[in-house]
Design a protein that fits this description.
Elements: H1 10-21, H2 23-31, H3 33-36, H4 39-61, H5 71-81, H6 91-98
Helix pairs in contact: 1-2, 1-4, 1-5, 2-4
Length: 101
C-alpha cells in the first residue's frame, strides 16, 4: 500500500521509522496523545509492535533461524521514512480488522 498523504510531515516520518527500529519507541508513541492522534504515526507504531511480536514468535519457534526476518523491519522503517504506508501480509489486515489502525 503506497499511499502518500499530503498531511504527513517529516516528524511523522521520523517517528514511524523509529517505531520499526526500536519497539520501545512504538509503545511511547501510543502513550503520547499528540503522536497517537496522527494516523500515519499510529498506523506504523501499532503495525511495528504486532510485527515485532510475530517475528519474535517465528524466531523462537524456529530456534533462531527465523531471526533473519528481523531485517524486514529495516526495510519497513525505510519505507515509513519515505512517507509510505507499508503493507505487511496478514499483519496489516489483522490490525485493520481489530480497529487498531
Amino acid at each position: 500500500m503506497t499511499n502518500f498523504s499530503s498531511d504527513v510531515n517529516s516528524d511523522d516520518k521520523l517517528w514511524a521509522m523509529l517505531a520499526y527500529l526500536i519497539p520501545l519507541i512504538a509503545i511511547v508513541v501510543l502513550l503520547m496523545e499528540d503522536k497517537k492522534a496522527r494516523p500515519f504515526i499510529k498506523f506504523h507504531a501499532v503495525q511495528s509492535l504486532v510485527a515485532t511480536v510475530a517475528l519474535t514468535v517465528i524466531a523462537t519457534v524456529t530456534f533462531g533461524c527465523g531471526s533473519v526476518l528481523y531485517l524486514a523491519l529495516i526495510w519497513w522503517a525505510i519505507k515509513a521514512y519515505q512517507g509510505e504506508y507499508v503493507t505487511i501480509p496478514v499483519i496489516t489486515d489483522f490490525i485493520k480488522n481489530q480497529g487498531w489502525a
